[in-house]
Amino acid sequence: MSEAFIVDAVRTAGGRRAGKLSGWHPVDLAAQTINALLDRSQVDPQLIEDVIMGCVSQAGEQAANVGRNAVLASRLPESVPGTSVDRQCGSSQQALHYAAQAVMSGAMDIVIAGGVESMTRVPMFTPSALPRKSGLGFYMSDAIHRRYGPAEFSQFSGAEMMAAKYGFEKSALDEYALMSHQRATRAAAEGRFAREIIPVRVRDEKGVETDEVHSRDEGVRANSTLEGIASVKLLQEGGRISAANASQICDGASAVLIANEKGLRALGVKPMARVHHMSVMGHDPVIMLEAPIPATQRALQRTGLKISDIDHFEVNEAFAPVPLAWLRELGADPARLNPYGGAIALGHPLGATGTKLMATLVHALQQTGGRYGLQTMCEGGGMANVTIVERL
After folding, report:
1. Which of 97, 120, 107, 87 is nearest to 351 (CA)?
2. In this predicted structure, what is the pLDDT of residue 1?
3. Exposure pattern of 304-321 as b/e (b: 16+ CB <10 Å)?
4. What is the pLDDT of residue 151?
5. Which residues on neighbouring strands pair with residue 209, listed in sequence order?
6. What pLDDT score was predicted for residue 373?
7. What are the tens digits of pLDDT across the range 266-307?
8. In this structure, what is the dihedral angle of CA atoms 372, 87, 52, 300, given to the nearest 10 degrees?
9. Which of 181, 214, 312, 348 is catalytic?
């Protein structure tokens, strides 16, 4: 069987809700990342055999196969197909897995995996909330109710359950949130994101490009203080989770170019990394956010790697209890966990986050000389993908 290699990985800088990326139609924004990969690799567009695009809120401007529409909005020929994946927050990480599996099997040689989410233009929960309001039903079936009980699965309740189960007081969550901003601020100042971020022009409310260029993550607060974070209103009375210790609503897109050995020869390039391991695991959908822990444990067992063998971890900061619980249970080096900050500071553009984190991971390994990197994240429905890459 062939191996899968990451040739390049790019992302837009995160845009805050109603911020610098809000004027972009998500299809056009996704196309920007595709075009950037073509430019940077100098690949003949005809060589791309598929585009697999992760997206969570596949409604409105993100409906009707956003992956194919991104192809049509890009410089790729219309002969290149495209498809869309929804594994909730892990959507584009799963897109990467599908792309890697395609080239490993030999069915294809060069594939683009990516993701997009405009949380400004297609708000979270749109695909379920709008039909429900229109009397078209809801995703929770009678069988699910009988098995699990709650009226609906909630990531916010799951975050509170995680904090309580692992004994994290609000002060610990707020301290972690502050560290995320501090690390992201330092990473940006040191130019750590320069290679992964593709600059895009800001568009106004009519979609017309302006002279302003967006190339810096908009959610990072260099002047964050523990007092300021602690003062943010709780999401539920008596709880521990606030908007300040949870991931930021974010607009963004990201993409990764994947190839096997034959594809590398056709491209004439040296890859950045090799995909060493891919897996996905289901877990309790009520607490929902705990799956990265057993999923990582299983991935390490399958690969024969120890936690100390991994040089860089990207564990999505959906809510502060998630990386904190993962860190405690895995016994990893805290300095290797999200060293450039995470979604609390940088934002979590849902379907784009998987390949966004991979862009950060592979470029960081190139900068630091680390060998192995591991990425995982919690996902709606109680799932987690794990990807381990080896720098080349």
Report:
1. 87
2. 86
3. ebeeeebbbbbbbbbbbb
4. 77
5. 203
6. 99
7. 999 999 999 999 999 999 999 999 999 999 999 999 999 999
8. 20
9. 348
Active site residue 250: no
Is residue 368 within 8 A of residue 311, CB to CB? The reply is: yes
- How remote is the C-alpha of 91 from its chain's centroid? 8
Residue type, 92: S
Average pLDDT of the chain? 98
The residues, ordered by sequence, that sit 6+ positions from 11 with a Cβ below 8 Å of its Cβ are: 33, 196, 197, 198, 252, 253, 254, 255, 352, 355, 356, 359, 360
Whole-number Å distance between alpha carbons of 392 and 390: 6
CA nearest neighbour of 351 among 159, 86, 100: 86
Pairing of β 5-11 and β 312-315: unpaired
Q: Which residues does 58 contact at the CB level (< 8 Å), separation at least 6?
A: 66, 84, 86, 127
According to DSSP H, which parts of 152-217 are helical? 155-165, 170-189
Give the pairing of strands 110-118 and 51-54.
parallel
Residue 150 has a pLDDT of 73
Phi, psi (degrees; rounded to nearest 5) at 242? -130, 170
89 as an active site residue: the answer is yes
The single residue of 89, 181, 250, 312 carrying the catalytic annotation is 89
Residue 372 pLDDT grade (very low, low, confident, very high; cuts 50, 70, 90):
very high
Q: Which two tokens stand for residue 308?
A: 């100390």
Q: What's the average model confidence in pLDDT over 136-142?
A: 95
Q: How many CA atoms lie within 13 A of 48 on its CB side?
A: 29
What span, in angstroms and rounded, lies between the C-alpha atoms of 99 and 258? 7
* Cα distance between the two ends of the chain: 19
